Amino acid sequence: MSGVSTPLSSSSTLTGPLSEPSSPKGQKGGLNAYDTVSPHTAPGTTTTSPVAYTIEALAAQHSSSVVVFDLAEQAGFGVRITQWAEETDVKVTRAQTRAGAGLGLVGRLSEGTSEDGARATKGAITAFTTPEGLAQMVPALSILPAPSSSGRLVIQVAAVTPTPTLELTPTLAPAARALASLGSDFTVLISSTAQEAAEFAALSYSLSSHVVHVFDHSGATRETGKSVFPEVASATSTLSELSSFAQFTYTGGSDAEVALVLLNGPLAALARLLASHAPGLGVVSVRALSPWNIEALHKALPESVKKVHVVEEVPNGSGSGPLFGDVLTSGLSNVSVRGHRVPSKRSEAFHNSANAFAKFITEITSIPSSLAQGAKYKSLAFLSTPTVASLTHLPQITAHTFLTQGGPIAARLLPVYDAFASSQGAVISRLVLTPSNDEHLSKAPVSSIASLEKQVDCLTIVDPSLLASHNTFTLVKDGAPVLVLASGGAPEVASRLPREAIEDINARGIRVYTFDVENAAAEIGDSGSDASLLQTALAHLVLLRIYLGATATPAAVQTLSARIYGDVVAGVSSTVACDAAWSGLVGVEIPVPEPLAEDAAPPKKLAAFAFNALNLDDPAYDGRPAPAIPTLGSWAEAAKRLIFREAFSPAVSSSTQVAHATDPALRPDLTEERFLVTCTVNKRLTPLTYDRNVFHLEFDTAGTGLKYAIGEALGVHGWNDEAEVLEFCEWYGVDPKSIITLPAPGNPSQTHSRTVFHALQQQIDLFGRPPKGFYGALAEHAKNRDDAMALRFIAAPEGSATFKKLSEGDTVTYADVLRQFPSARPSLSELATLVGDIKPRHYSIASAQSAVGDRVDLLVVTVDWVTPSGSPRYGQCTRYLAGLKVGQKVTVSIKPSVMKLPPDDMQPIIMAGLGTGAAPFRAFIQHRALLVSQGKPVGPLIYYFGSRHRSQEYLYGEELEAYIADGIITHAGLAFSRDTKKKVYIQHKMREDSEMLGKMLAGPDKGVFYLCGPTWPVPDVYAALIDSLVQFGGKTQEEAAQYLEDLKEEERYVLEVY
Q1: Do residues 212 and 262 share a domain?
Q2: Which domain holds residue 855?
Q3: For the residues 830-857, what does the mean pLDDT come to?
Q4: Its domain of life (predicted)?
Q5: Fewer CB within 10 Å: C terminus or N terminus of the chain?
Q6: Among residues 372, 393, 409, which one ends one of the domains?
Q7: Which of 236-242's residues contact partners 24+ apart within 8 Å by CB, and which partners?
Q8: In whole angstroms, what is the distance from residue 665 CA to residue 657 CA?
Q9: pTM, 2 dp
């Protein structure tokens, strides 16, 4: 077959007018790179992210706290909200699924916590779980307090359950009895489609009752398709008060005599689709199981109905679900009600095959039902493995082509994973295209209408290695095209096909095509093109040609390419890319296999694909080693690492070697770039009699490769005090010279060995402040009952006040807690696991590398205090820095900062620094002074500085006076609050200069304002700037406030406070 023939010349194509979609050019993050839901997404926003993201975002927006149970997290539900916790005020807690799992939720609602109280305006506590988890939880919920405006429970149940064969299904069977036993304080909502799941999740936070919302997480909420982010009303209503909500929905003719009643879910959605093509059959979907509404059920059923079949999923054939009893006792006159229990194994078959479910409906109703009676849709599938990284986003890019049309085609993309299909698993992505005006077909479960058994219209095999192990061709319909993206051409592809696959292809008339995407991209690409993106685009264009079928022409593909990618595709002309895609597609001639000899061994049976994972990132099946645990050992362990360096040394990339040419192994346990610098100056700036030790440090960076920008911060990897470490070792009874092997924080699967002394001095944060969880973990090691009870009390919600006193009042360290509870003495290996690692402390760099060369300066103040008990305390890192000797080596790293110079040297710079907040501005001034010395024009430089006494804390005073005298600093506002009877702060100096500040910030010169130091003066400084803009910038108070907000966005109003 030539490369110019049409692969789908005899096939029909689901088409619609192609409007101009947003271009995927340059996007490498897949479809979700275009549109990602977050807790900040506004109601009414149309999104293409999976609706599971929306449910998590709603929980983050409307919950005081969220409890993520392990079964939900293993299903990929609850992962994002854990990441979002840092940017929202929601408290996220992980919990284990076990008997009595609901007691923790009961306790939270019964008593609350001090942290929850601060969030009480949100009212709801949300739990994420699965049907199995709900079944474990429900018995304890019988003692749940009544819902109130300040305390309600919302349980979001991701319906996905493993079967005995480890395949995943959305069955509700594990929760059948649990749903029936929930009390009257609960509203039970069950959604079936993606948009419905989003709306029901929002409804959960609008109701005044406790709520259980069950949604299809094996399919609907993981789909990539269009949905609208819903709005949440205030939680003041009951379900019966919401006139807009239909507890029961009916699908079918008004004269139907037979009706199915099902809990809303994937099977209900499939039943609605079948009923829409089966005259005489109706379907009632129960969207709210509790509270049961008899009157609403009567209204939903047509008067013509004579027979009702209640279909519900149960764990086994002898059990019962919650639905049949409710329907039977609803007083349906002249109607026979019959129940049909669907055990888990049969339910699994129904979820995976619409035809199997249609056959079951025909059997129980005697009404012919079949998906083939009227459904019109197309199913495309993509088969790949994680090893083919360059084409990872081909399914998403293809789906995006249809999702952006807004025409008559609805598109939904659903990935399923087989963790055992290869060493790294396999992913099967199914893209279903349906008429958007077919309400039921466009919402039917993808797994049912596009099953993995002869239901795919076009298959793309991205990783051809799967051809040898799996019968990939069983996925497609008879006569369907299969595209293999492989190198070597058609003969190579034909040689890879096993006998079983060849026989299947020939018997069913399957057409096989191949395209060498790597070679095509290499031929037309250049150094300026992105190889991965170009390969994806070429494969996409080839697939579009196959999809267009008989209408495909070079001109048609060119038109599509121009609309999708524009004139350039990944750095290559669109015309060139289309020509390469058109000419590179070739057919594969399938040989007729030779008859097997009588004594020949039977050919190997090819495996079938299964849906048994929701992602391939779990170490349980991706081949990654489990995290290492700390272990005490002998010198032999360290000796092995010295002798067999290649086996134990962490891999170092070439880029890392370049960045750290002098010592690539420097602190291999850390992930950021590290540098070893030498202390050359450690000078105290304040008098010895002064109560604050502010000191200046200089480090030599020559030969280290360290580069930093103005305004960046230096991360110092400080050490614990040597004497305190040795004292602890003696008290704890450990030999400081013994060897301990620790996991590396940057790569927990790797380890490094060091002495106990060095581990406690340089890595283990022994003298840091322990979090609340440490007390609970330590309680497990307490041999004394009183110690164990005290530790558990501190870790419990009731112990919040005690924990606060210990943490904020007494400022206890890990070592202090161990001394306070002496019977709780874990081994050193266990202690290393319980205690976190020392984190680098970051200090604003007080020098400009452009001015000082191979040097970096810091301005530091020693942090020390006395506890209520009279014990002295010291900041770990400032104590380490204050004790540095000239010539001592220090490990450092660089951290970016918001303190950046404006792009134009003529822009006015206004700096306000308090105390050590002067550090970055010293760098600013040095750089401006350098520009002036080079004869370059610069704008005004305004400097405000505040401290207590000029004679004791005028930091870098001599330098500043020289800069003022030379005109480098245009104007200085110095405020020494304790030197005058009336305290004067920098905001007072700024008010004196209101006219200058107002004109600089609001005028055409686009002045930039920076503040660095403690947080307390921020409101007064803000007020001074507002007044200057009102008086001399021609703005009202409201306009001035908005103007400063705009300056923040433009990075012209920059705060770095602590």
Answers
A1: no
A2: 660-719+838-897
A3: 90
A4: Eukaryota
A5: C
A6: 372
A7: 236/208, 237/206, 237/207, 237/208, 238/187, 238/207, 238/208, 238/209, 239/187, 239/207, 239/209, 239/288, 239/291, 239/293, 240/291, 240/293, 242/203, 242/206
A8: 9
A9: 0.59
